[in-house]
Each structure stands twice: as C-alpha cells, then as structure tokens.
# Entry
Amino acid sequence: MILTVTMNPSIDIAYRLSAFIPDTVSRAEETHKTPGGKGLNVTRVLSAAGEEVKATGLIGGKNGEFLKEQLALAQIPASFYPVSGDTRNCIAIMHKGKQTEILEAGPAVSAEEYRGFTEHFRLLLENCSAAVISGSLPPGIPTDCYARLTAIACKAGIPVILDCSGESLKTALEAEDKPIAIKPNIDELCALLQKEIPKETEALKEALSSGIFEGIAWIIVSLGADGCFAKHNDTFYLVHIPKIRAVSPVGSGDAAVAGIASGIVHGLKDEDLLKKANTFGMLNAMEKQTGTVNMKNYDMLYRQITVTKV
# Structure
C-alpha cells in the first residue's frame, strides 16, 4: 500500500468562464468541486491506476467532512487526523486558456494537533510500502515537518517520495534521513539553488550534482512540455514526451509523482519508471479535472516517450 500525506488539503473549486472581467458579475459555465491538495491529487491518480493507496493528513470542519465523503464515494481509503479548524477552499477561475487561482492558507494547527498527527502517521506506516508527502503546510506547522515525517518513515524502513518547495524542501534535504525521490519543477530547482538554470543538459547535470542533493537517489525535474531531466544515483536521463492536446496542466506534476511512487514500489527499471511518471502527467493534462487520468490512453502515450542517458 502507498500512503499519501496531505497536510493542507482543500476543496478545489474550479469555475470555467467564457470571460473573466474584474469588478463585474461573472457567471460560471461549469463548476467542479473535488478533494484537493497535491497529496490528494496523487491519491486519485494512484487509485485510478489500480494501486492500493490510503490518504492521510489533517482535516477539519464541514469542508473536511465533504472531502471524506467524496473520497468514500470514490472508494479511496482514508485515515485523516482531525483538527479543530475548517479545511480550506482553493478556487481556480479558468477563462480563455488562462487560469487565476485564489488559495486560502488553511486552518491554524496547534502544537498538540501536530504531535498527534505525527504519532498517527507512525502507526499508519505499519502496513505500507512507500509514503508520498506532498504540498504546502498550514499555519502552525513548522517548516521541518517534512524532514521529521521523513525521519519517522526512514526509521520504519519506508521510502519517501517528497514533493514540496521552499524552506520545507531545503530543510528536508539538509536532514540526516533523506527521501528516496524528489520532483521539483525547473522554477523550484532555480529557487532552491538560488540561481537561474537553463534547460540545457550540462547545466542541469551540474545543478543536480550540487551537494544539497547528496543521498537523494532520485531527482526528477519537470520541464513542462519539454519532458523532464532526471538523475538516479550517478546516472542522468533526458526524457522527451510527445505533443498532446492539453486541457489543463494543473496537477500534472502530482500525477507524475504518482507514477514515481508506483515505479519505486514495483521496482521498475529506470527507463520504465520515467516513462510511467511522464505518461501519468500527460494523462492528467488531457483532462479537465485535476488528479484525473484516463488509463485507456496509457499505452498510446507511453510508447511515444523516449528516455536517453546523457
């Protein structure tokens, strides 16, 4: 079983408009409400791909009840830790190929609630083969949270796939216990290393050889429509993907993380893992709803991906 951790889940509310003009009344042509947060996007993709998965994280209030109901309807097992605050809403306004997002910070979490969750997480690890930890942290949670959760998992012999950014990522990389895999996009990589990194092979190889990544087995850098650049131990890979008719790229990185986790759990060869991750990402981009993949198109896309050692 793969355990997914979403510390700051949300109800993702997507409004599709023909036009969005500030300071006027806008009427939505379509509205979708789905369980959100990066970890829950990963969860839904893994479930759609037939993986055994369980979702955990912090949840509270009426919004939290809605999320649990929606996951139950989708037959996705979940074991969240309750908090007193109400789970947040995140709004996406889509218009003419553009997307405007309004993201709430999330409920303030007390020190007692945080301690309770870490013990809850420790117990859930007993029956899982990997843990995926994704997304932002709500107010009240320290930036070393993901480093702490990774340490708990490592001591239990459970590999961690970590997808976060900023200080949370930096702190986790500097800790003694390391995640097995991380998946920054090119912008997050530049921010982490505090320099501009062109999408060129030698520049990317130099960047991923930085000392901050010591001990990380898999570093997979998303390059958007250009595919990805990856390092597994001492081997570098350039991954080219076919052009697709993308409907919404939002959540494609999360879908790729689902593929990475699945590949690690099943012991896939490097090329197969990278192809699976990128296929999941493309499948998500072809759908309106975030964290959704149509597995009927899997083989067709998978065959068009090329992985080259560089």
